Amino acid sequence: MILNGNDIKKLVEEKDIINPFNIDNVNSGSYDISVSSTILKIKKSFKVIDLNNGEQISKIYEEVDIKNGYCLKPNETILCALNEKISLPENIVAHIRPRTSLSRLGLYINLQHAQAGYSGVLNIAMHNMSCNSYRITPNLRIGQVVFEELTDGMTEDLLYQNESTPVYQDEDGLVGSKIYVDYIGKVFRHYKGNYYFIENISMDSETKEDMIVYRPLYERKDSMLWNRPAKMFFEEIDPNKKDNITGQKHRFELCVELSKDYINSKEVKKNERS
Q1: Among 147, 134, 166, 115, which Cα is nearest to 33's?
Q2: 5-162: CATH topology
Q3: Which of 43, 62, 69, 90 is most buried, with most CB under 10 Å away?
Q4: 222: CB partners within 8 A, 6+ apart
Q5: Domain-by-domain residue ranges, the chain?
Q6: Which CATH number describes the domain made up of 179-273?
Q7: What whole-number distance in Å separates Cα of residue 258 and Cα of residue 187?
Q8: If pLDDT is split at 50, 70 and 90, which confidence band does 221 have?
Q9: What pLDDT score does 171 carry?
Q10: Which helix (H) or strand (E) holds 245?
Q11: Which DSSP symbol is given to 83?
């Protein structure tokens, strides 16, 4: 069931689902969302970006202050942090929808879904598909959030904050892509030749930096579970480095076939035990 404007106002009072809240932004079945004063500009790269390389991905972003406006050029995409923090209870999901007036100018935002239990400042991608340039300014209303109530039977384990990798939970401000969470459960080879299994992605409580949690696939006497900053894990290295016996370009590189074999072997052992 889609919540109407009165339902939204009631939820704001009871659950603080939108903060800050402006009653003038309430519509019959949605709430208007607006751009903050900073964006992430996606810089043009002159080489193919490897989606298996977190370091390359992090380098395509440039934070820009738009207090005086930002000229969004044709075929350019930016990532906008909203002014509003969205905090969803266990029975409500949210859908981000574009603003019709902007769509008619060729400005589009990505359709986005926030799961029950999510809390944070949503980042919305805006793309200029027109032949004109447009000035983007702080507090520009770029879309609307629609709230929908889930059917009965929702369990806590399905809530976003209880997922194994709720990577965008509690995001505050601008956060780039974390597509490398797809590597959880995969095997990577270190440039010195050893193989490692990614267990999870964590966050440094002080720096908020993403950390790769991994373990070696060989016997060691010391710790069997390590973590390393994601940027360092995926960073480029010198292929001619003396101890780079594999000749690879990155500190760790994904081994697709080994990942499949490792997962299959775990399934076989699991079935044997059962």
Answers
A1: 147
A2: Deoxyuridine 5'-Triphosphate Nucleotidohydrolase; Chain A (2.70.40)
A3: 90
A4: none
A5: 5-162, 179-273
A6: 2.30.30.320
A7: 6
A8: confident
A9: 62
A10: none
A11: S
DSSP letters for 120-180: E--EEEEEE-SSS-EEE-TT-EEEEEEEEEPPS---GGGSGGGSS--TTTT--S-----GG
pTM for this entry: 0.64
Contact yes or no for 98/109 (Cβ under 8 A): yes
**What does the alpha-carbon distance between residue 103 and residue 94 come to, in Å, rounded to a whole number?**
20
Tokens read off for 253: 């590189």
Predicted pLDDT at 155: 61
Taking 3-state DSSP, the helix, strand and coil percentages for the chain, each rounded to the nearest 5, stand at 20, 35, 45
Percent of the chain with pLDDT over 70: 81
Does residue 156 or residue 78 have the better pLDDT?
Answer: 78
For residue range 123-145, what is the model confidence (pLDDT) as tens digits? 899 999 999 999 999 999 999 99
